[in-house]
Specification:
39% of the residues lie in helices and 15% in strands. It has helices at residues 9-12, 43-52, 65-74, 88-100, 116-123, 141-147, 170-179, 198-209, 238-247, 255-265, 268-291, 311-323, 347-361; strands spanning 22-23, 30-31, 83-86, 106-110, 127-131, 152-158, 185-189, 214-219, 232-235, 303-307, 326-327, 329-330, 339-343, 375-376. The strands form 4 sheets. A 7-stranded mixed beta sheet has the order 3-9-8-7-6-4-5, sandwiched between helices. Helix 2 (43-52) runs antiparallel to helix 10 (255-265), helix 3 packs parallel to helix 10 and helix 11 (268-291) packs parallel to helix 13. It binds pyridoxal-5'-phosphate (PLP). Pyridoxal-5'-phosphate is lined by residues 88-90, 114, 158, 162, 189, 191, 219, 221, 227, 232. Residues 88-90, 114, 158, 162, 189, 191, 219, 221, 227, 232 line the site of pyridoxal-5'-phosphate.
Length: 378
């Protein structure tokens, strides 16, 4: 008898992460599906990364001391040992799950949370658990606490959350931590932190500073415009830092990412310009979508979540947008099948998106073979 080569059962059952997607379209595609910074990486980072390319035959500093110190200095963190780097915050989610949750443990998050919390829980054999949100898609602190038990090892809260764009605020985070069981590590995902007032994450960081049971995750992928670079960081308790530093591979962040990250930290102007663009065009987009009778609640991040009259309508609108070269994000996989998530991209791309939705809304959509079946899923 021969044994088949097979992964462990819970690995075999993983469903692949669905990224923003790709589109077969003859012409430039309006990319509004992945919450990237449409303004680009910023000139300083771009130059630094080009220069760093000449030095990639040398391994990076395995301690990443310069970048960790620069992050600490930029963010007013007194203890730089508490800053841990990852190849994107995705890697830090993976490392945290690997270190703290396995078979018999539970990983808790909100009903429409970022999907990697669940994916990693399954990958490491832990039990994923979702707590219901409020009717308007906010995290519900009481529900999270109700769903936490003695087996809960990780609790994720994205502030603001993707794909809902909602947040609960500093006081609610503190109340959540106070009511969670002691063995559960609370992970606050700040992927969109820079789109908020500076005070929010300063306050969360001050709160985390005095605790052994709160982690804050940050990334260079969103407002800093470095999504392909794969660079994220965590502000973690010292004990957690020790664990993650041992568990990560020695060169988990590449040398070009170090250079790009350092330069990005010196480029506040790019962050400010990006934030202003997001504020201006987020308001504009929301108004236009509401005028089309597509309820679009306020979002605290660089995307909006629009509600369509039905599941079929959302799918149909998405098909039409694709036929017009506009790529937005279906969020059926997040349990929100009647909505589309639209990133706050460039002015021209947002105008194409709204124009296409206007055509779709008045039923004037051109019959097009491309409208059905052309969409490639990434
Ligand atoms: C985009 C995103 C991330 C992942 O960011 P990377 O640093 O690129 O891995 C994490 N959390 C949330 C909520 C996100 O939207």
């Amino acid at each position: 008898m021969t044994a088949a080569i097979a992964p462990r059962a819970h690995i075999a059952n993983l469903s692949p992460y669905k990224a923003g997607g790709k589109l077969a379209y003859d012409g430039p595609v309006a990319l509004l599906a992945s919450n990237e910074n449409a303004l680009g990486p910023g000139e300083k980072a771009a130059v630094a990364m080009r220069d760093a390319a000449a030095g990639v035959h040398i391994y990076p500093d395995p301690d990443y001391g310069a970048l960790r110190s620069a992050i600490a200095a930029r963010h007013g963190i007194a203890d730089g040992e508490r800053v841990v780097l990852g190849a994107g915050s995705d890697e830090l989610i993976s490392l945290l799950t690997h270190a703290y949750a396995g078979p018999g443990d539970e990983v808790l998050y909100t009903a429409h949370a970022f999907s990697m919390y669940r994916v990693n829980a399954i990958a490491f054999g832990a039990t994923p658990k979702a707590a219901p949100e409020t009717a308007d898609l906010h995290a519900d602190v009481d529900a999270l606490v109700d769903h936490a038990g003695l087996n809960t090892k990780l609790v994720y809260l994205a502030e603001p959350n993707n794909p809902t764009g909602t947040m609960v605020g500093v006081d609610a985070v503190k109340a959540l931590r106070a009511a969670l069981p002691a063995q559960a590590l609370l992970v606050i995902d700040g992927a969109y932190a820079e789109f908020l007032d500076d005070g929010v994450y300063r306050a969360l960081q001050d709160f985390a500073a005095g605790r052994e049971d709160v982690v804050i995750l940050r990334t260079f992928s969103k407002i800093r415009g470095l999504a392909a670079l794969r660079l994220g960081w965590g502000y973690v308790p010292r004990a957690v830092a020790g664990v993650l530093q041992q568990l990560r591979s020695p060169f988990n962040v590449n040398g070009i990412a170090v250079a790009g990250g350092l330069a990005s930290l010196e480029d506040d102007a790019h962050v400010q310009v990006s934030r202003a663009h997001n504020a201006e065009w987020g308001v504009w987009l929301r108004q236009r979508l509401q005028a089309l009778d597509l309820p679009t609640p306020e979002s605290h991040a660089n995307f909006v979540l629009s509600q369509f009259p039905s599941v079929a309508a959302a799918a149909d609108a998405d098909d039409y947008l694709r036929s017009q070269g506009v790529l937005v994000r279906r969020v059926a996989g997040y349990g929100l099948p009647d909505r589309l998530r639209i990133s706050i991209g460039l002015e021209g791309d947002l105008k194409r998106c709204v124009k296409a939705l206007e055509e779709w809304r008045v039923g004037g959509r051109a019959p097009s073979a491309a409208a059905h079946g052309s969409a490639l899923t990434a």
